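[09:14] KT: can someone run the structure on this one? pasting the chain below
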Amino acid sequence: MASTEMTTTQDTLKTMPESGYPTFDRPPPNYFRVHFYLRLLLLASAVSALVVLVTSKETKVIAVIPEPTGAMQITRDAKFNYTPALIYLLVALAVTSLYSFKTMLFSRSVMSRPVPSAKIFFSLILLDLIMASIMASAVGTAGGVGYLGLKGNTHTNWTKFCNIYGKFCRYIAASIIVSLVASIILVLLVVLSAYSLYKRSH
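[09:31] RB: done, structure tokens below
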């Protein structure tokens, strides 16, 4: 009897593929279809935020010096490239757009295949974490500049300017909000990859 059970166990081990689960069990679910749609949404949000940020520009005529004949007027522009924090956000969005496009194509290619190896999941988790960190830091930096533009800072005598450049500030605010959405999507992708790895090992 013991010899028969040992033979059955050995036969079962021989039928186990390299993926780590026996052939008589159902393979772990493939969530790369969800990956694909999340990365498509990530691409759309990153590109949208990038376009809004690049097109944020406003010109105002400002009266600065009173004269006997009237106030002297000068023209001043507000552009995103005048602020290093917004340039950083621009670079982060460009990198995220390229990254989301490439990983979206990868997700599409493995969507209908068996579950990939654990190395692929680890790589995706690491890369998504790096991109989420970059986006989060860029959004936080740009948000700080936007807050100063909206409220100013009386302690350092930094005056607000959104009361003058209203359209410019609205564009910047919209870009920051959509960039925040992109950051949240990256976090969701990390969670999804971690869950897929968990289901693969169990």
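[09:33] KT: thanks! The radius of gyration is 26 Å.
[09:34] RB: yep, looked fine to me
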